[in-house]
Design a protein that fits this description.
This protein has eight helices and nine strands. The protein is an alpha/beta fold and 249 residues long.
């Protein structure tokens, strides 16, 4: 299933594939949740079912971001920001979105069992084109002495889940803060709390912000740092329109 970015699709042998675990990692504020919603938007509007579990944002906030993307209307910051023309665009976008097979779930339990139950519930409605979990370090698994062991178990189980249910799973992940202090580009070794994430995933995407003078569109570096069975070390650049959450090649 296409990511909507031709260069990325080519590297992934066509796009997201069933049974594979994808990691999307960045420091906070770079736009990993926005990019995950971008993928979800592009896939759902083509008729593929999307199951999006957010451990960080509410389901209504996720849906609001999607509505902003589709309508082209920025999220209002204060009362009076929305004009009548904006309301018309939002209404039109809402009517289009009603037909999309996408479900946002804000998961207060933050466990693998609740995520699995969500996927099974959605799969009963039809084939899932993409499952998203935002984000991996907010998941918990009882019975582990260290956080490293716990995250290792989580990443391994997510990979097994993708194989068993035959769906692509996109798990968002934090990167270590040391990358910022050392002013380095993101690397796989910077995946927070566990080296097993790198081992278990089929592909890993690392995002970083590039210096850019454009106040409206931010330049984002998209690096495929791992790609099992495909093109490795691809670096491409995306334009990120932050006010609408839109990405373009």
């Amino acid at each position: 299933i296409s990511t909507s970015f031709p260069k990325v699709d080519y590297a992934l042998s066509g796009g997201f594939q069933p049974g594979k675990l994808y990691i999307l990692a960045a420091r906070p504020g770079v736009g990993k949740s926005a990019l995950a919603i971008h993928f979800s938007h592009e896939i759902a509007r083509r008729g593929y079912r999307v199951a999006y579990a957010s451990l960080e944002m509410s389901a209504s906030e996720c849906a609001g971001r999607l509505l902003s993307r589709e309508s082209g209307v920025s999220r209002p910051r204060q009362k009076g920001d929305l004009l009548p023309t904006h309301r018309g665009k939002l209404e039109d976008a809402k009517n289009r979105m009603k037909q999309w097979p996408i479900t946002f779930k804000d998961d207060a339990e933050s466990t693998l069992d609740s995520f699995r139950a969500f996927l099974l519930q959605e799969r009963a409605k039809g084939e899932i084109g993409l499952a998203v979990i935002d984000y991996l370090q907010l998941l918990s698994a009882p019975g582990y002495d260290s956080r490293v062991q716990e995250v290792s178990y989580l990443s391994r189980t997510l990979k097994q889940m993708s194989l068993e249910l035959e769906i692509p799973i996109l798990a968002l992940s934090q990167l270590n803060r040391a990358l910022e202090t050392q002013n380095r580009k993101p690397m796989l070794s910077g995946l927070r709390e566990s080296g097993s994430i790198e081992q278990d995933c089929d592909s890993a995407f690392l995002l970083s912000s590039e210096d850019d003078d454009n106040p409206l569109k931010e330049k984002i570096r998209f690096h495929i740092a791992k790609n099992r069975g495909g093109q490795n070390e691809l670096v491409t650049y995306l334009e990120f329109e932050k006010s609408l959450g839109r990405f373009s090649p």
